[in-house]
Every structure is written in structure tokens, then in C-alpha cells.
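ok here's the first one, seq then C-alpha cells
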Amino acid sequence: MRNGSITTEAFSAVTASTVTTGAARAATGYCAQRRFAATACFWLIAWLALACLPACSTGQKAKPAPLPNDSLSYPTLELNNDTLRMVLYLPDPEHGFYRGTRFDWSGMIERVEYAGHRFYQPFQAQHDPYGHDHVSGPAEEFGMDNPPGFDEAAAGEPFVKIGVGLLRKGAEPNYRFNGDYELVRAGDWAVARGPDWVEFEQALSAPRGWGYRYQKRIQLIAGQPAFTISHRLENSGSKTIATNHYNHNFTLIDGTPYGPDYDVQFPFLAKPEQAINQHAWFRANGIEVQRPLGEASLWLPVHPQPGPASLNAGLVRNNKTGAAVRFQGDTPISKYIFWAVARAACPEPFIHLQLAPGQVQEWSTLYTLEVDSNQ
């Protein structure tokens, strides 16, 4: 109870308990009335009693089992500029599409529709809101290699994951981007919007002098099949923030599995050309997939060293349907990774963030959708 009202979690537990307990009693009476065999009745009532246990338990909130992907059943909003339509998920610690501890909760794009084509979709077919990679579209991450405050935190102490909140460090001394870290406190989000734009803001004050104010704005470009994702990060704490940021760019176009039907292009050349997992090559300025990936994955540091902002770009094209998405960032890269499975092609330029107390850093990426003229 909170101020005389029952919480959603408590209501769900009480309701489930009442239903399953009532069903067990009904089954007992039914068995007696029909004179079922004692053994059959015993097992029926035992099964119903076990079904009640998760709902009747107390303590930590249970994570739901993965469910078939009903991607629009979560809180969303829609943007439209009369040229393209975008559906985004809203950050929500109770009901949000993504409640994991890896990716930025804000501005996760469910789809973009343009000229009869669909760009992006949820990455996993069986969705778990707490899964570290159960995301959609241009999902972003801060501190993939080393989040602020992780090294200095003792086991059991919190550290900062920008765009998520405070996480608890476990016994492992090294950070794992896909680790199962406890969410100590989710950062609060403020959301403002217009017909063709949305802005998310999160402020967090953390122990040991860590703190930040973070803004993300997604803006559809008037009259164009294009949008920008812009960021502003302010160090509101007393310690220097030194971390990285990248967009994973989970890209699938028109539902076509990533493979030989796609081109992925970079603004630099392969030096030298490299084979990737016997399924693909990094040649010239792109990835050539030679056979369907099936369950295989591709991973390659296509540009492992820093480079100018002109290298913060890429293109993913579905040759089968003639649709493509092109992006261009405005910030120098620290490295560039390519990763892919059949469910998505992911060109990932990383940038470095270095903010002394009180400093602000801003960066932005322009996404442009393209469709062949004969489509």
C-alpha cells in the first residue's frame, strides 16, 4: 500500500493468488462431486497449488518470461512530417519495451515508414523487456567498455550507466556489456514532444561525485525522408566523465533477413580485404555476404583506430526491395565495428566522450531514407 492505494505489483500478485487458490478449491469440490480417483485429484490440486506460488511469493519482483513479440503493446508515440512516419518507444520503468541495463532507454525506434517501405523492427522475435539486447532500431549505448564509476566501485556498490541509471557492481572485477547487473535506481525521464519531434531528458546524481544531465532529441526533417538524433551531455558531478558512446544501428529493411540481398557500405576502404566467418568479405568499401547467415554472426573492427568525422557514416541497402538508410555523424570516431546476424546489420561508429565537471558535449547524426525511383 502507498497512501491507501495498492501498487500494480501487489494488485497483480493478489489477483493471481485469488484466482489460483479459488481454482484449487473448485477443483477439490469437483473431484469429490464426481468421485474422481484420489490420485488424479491429488495431482490436479498439487499442480494448481504450484501455479499459485510465483504470484504468492514476496521479495524481488520477478522478471516476466519472454513473450511473442507484440511490439506495439508497449508505451509508444508517433511522429509524422507528411513524408515519413516514425513510431518510438517511451522509457518507462514499469511498462516500457526496454528495461534492460545496457542500452539507453530513450528514443528507441520501433519502425520508420516511407514510400511503402518499413525500416527497422524489434531485434528479438521472443521479447523480454529485461534482456540486454531486446531492443529495436538505432539503439544507443554509453560506456560499453567501461562505464563511469565502475573501476572505483567495490563489489555491491553502484556505478553509473548513462541513459539507464545506477547499477550494482557484482563480484567480477571487469565490466561486461552483456552482464546481468542489478538496477539500483532507474534515472527519471522527462519527455516533451511535437508532431515531428520528441525530446527526452534524464538527470542523475550518484554517489562518490558522479552526476550528469542528458538530453536526446529526435527531429523529422520537414518535407524530407530524413531525421536527426541529437545529444547533449552535461557533467553535473565533481568527477571527470571519460567514456564512449555508439549507436548499434540494428537495421533490417522490409523484413528481409540480412544476407546476400544487402549491401553495407563505409566511407573508407578495406586495408587489406578480410574474410569474415567464411560467410562474408570486407572488400573495397563494403561488406559482401556470399551465403545466407542462418545462425551465424559476423563481427569485424572495420576501422579499429580513430578517424575524422567524415568516417562517422554508413549505408545499409536492401537490394531486393530497393530501399536503403544512410547516416552521417558530426563527431570524430574512436573506432568502427561491424556486427550482423540474419535479424540485423549493424554498422557501429564509436565516439569518445571526455567531460570535466561542468563541461557539456553535443553530437548529432543525420539519417536519410532512400528508395529506388522505380519502386
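and now the second one, same deal
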Amino acid sequence: MAKPSIPVYLVTGFFGSGKTTFINYLLSTTEGGRRIAVLVNDFGDVNVDSEVISRGHGHGNVPEVHGVAGGSIFCSCRHWEFVAGLRALAGHKPDLIVVEASGMADPSPVKADIKIASDIDPDHEFAHAGTICLVDAAMFVSQLDLFPVVHRQVKQATIVVVNKVDLLKEPVDPKKEAIAARIRWINQGARVEYATGAAIPLPAALHPGEAGGEVPRPDRSLNEPGNQPGKLVLESSRTLARDEVLSYYDAVKDKILRFKGFCRLDGGWYHVDAVGGQLRFSPSPVTRERSEIVCIFVPADESRLVELVDAWRRVVG
């Protein structure tokens, strides 16, 4: 008897492009009882995004959210965690699985890894149904030139969502056309969509397209020493003042790629997230033993790490 097949959609994009926002929008607009399981891969050492999806919103159509933190699950040294995650989610009988890749993930091996999961799972077949890549409209061109993995993410996409178009300065239309031209130069087969707040209707988001071609798993990282990101978790066991967190972020925002996590303020627990150079605080049901904020930075050298840690100590003690 044939094994039931579960469609798998991959969501890629560089840090801060809106992947988690996109998935939350997708889940909140899903109708008809469709059950969507989610696998979230955080580059940092704290499962921030998976907790935002699973506990911060409580979507009734989400049978399970599986989080894997601490690097990319498509690396040759960790791809078995992706395979294991798919198999674990399949046990919850979802109609489809959405995978949020980390910001530095090279998605080239995804089809091969999905096939491995199908081959070793006696009860389920997994089928790659599409790859949705989100890019930050205001940052895409500079990120493309600096980080080779952004090129690979666009190359492997079936749909490219140009997100945050509301942050483009006037005139907007020529800028959108220039971004689309760069995307099509990399990947002629992908459909290009524009969005604000990563709001793409479900039929458009899950409509199949054509990827830009298969690329084997790289023998080495696409990230060279000059652009290899570093990561640290900023912690505090005391209640923080909002101004303290804002002061720290303002002092280091030009030196980091990503700043997100959970912190305890005077009014309770908050999800902290930097978007477009602005720090947002959203009330959160997530509670922890201490405040934990993931900070991702380049270059990944000791001097930058010490600088960020010292700045945190000066602000919060």
C-alpha cells in the first residue's frame, strides 16, 4: 500500500526578512480545517521563532511546532536533524508541513534531504511542494552583494516575496523594478510577489512554481571569514527597564544583523524584535527563568563579541 504523501514547503530568507511574520500570517488566514505543522530552525542558540509561533498566537490549526536552534539544519553536519524533524511532525498527521529555515541557511540540499526522510520513514512520504524566499526590499541589494547565501536562497526559490515594500523611499516603482530585475537575473523561473508585513494570500503563497535549478550540497560553507556571522545570547536575571534595552540596541544596531528574544520588563514578559532599525516590544505569554535576547553579528571575531558583551554589561549591569 502506498504511503500517504505530505507536502513540504520551505520558507527561506536572510535575517529579518519576515519569515516568522509570513508563517504567522499564513497560519492565521488558513481556513477549512487544514492542519499545518511547522519546523523552525533558529540560527541562534535560543528557540525564539518557534516559541512565537507555537505559544504567542495559539493557532488552532497547528498540530505541532518543532524547533531546532544553533545553526542551519541543511549543513552536512546537521541535516539529520531536519530529517528527524519531518518524521516527528508527520506523526501528528498534518495536511502539510512548513519549514522555516535559519537566516544563513543554504537551501540547496532540501530536496535530497526530503527524499532521505521519505526513504527511511516506513509510514510517510514527503514531497517538496515549493520554496518561498522572503527578501527585505530596503536591504536586499546590499545583502546580496555581501552574503553569498542570499544569492543561493533566491536561486532555489519557487516564489520570491519582496517584503517591507512600505519601507522603500520614493520613488518606489523604479526600486521595485530594480529588485525584480536582480531576482530574475538569478532565477528566471520564480514568481515575484510584493508584500507589506509579509501578507501574502494562502493560494498565492502555496502555488507551485519553478526553482532556479538543483545545486549539490556544498563541500564548504558559503560564508567566508569576512561575512561569517557570530552569535551570542544576552541574558539578565533581573527585571529590565524598556529604556535599558532601547539604549543598548541604539548603541549596537549598526554592528549587528539580528536582535530578538524575550525579556522581562516592568509590565511583564515581552517579545523583543528589531525590524527596520526599530525595536518592537510585544506582550508575550512566554516566560523564562531569565531574559534572553539573541544577537547575531558580523564579523564573527572575538573583538566584536567582547564589544557587544561589554556594552550589555554597561547598560544592564
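notes on #2: The first strand starts at residue 5 and ends at 13. The chain has a mean pLDDT of 86.
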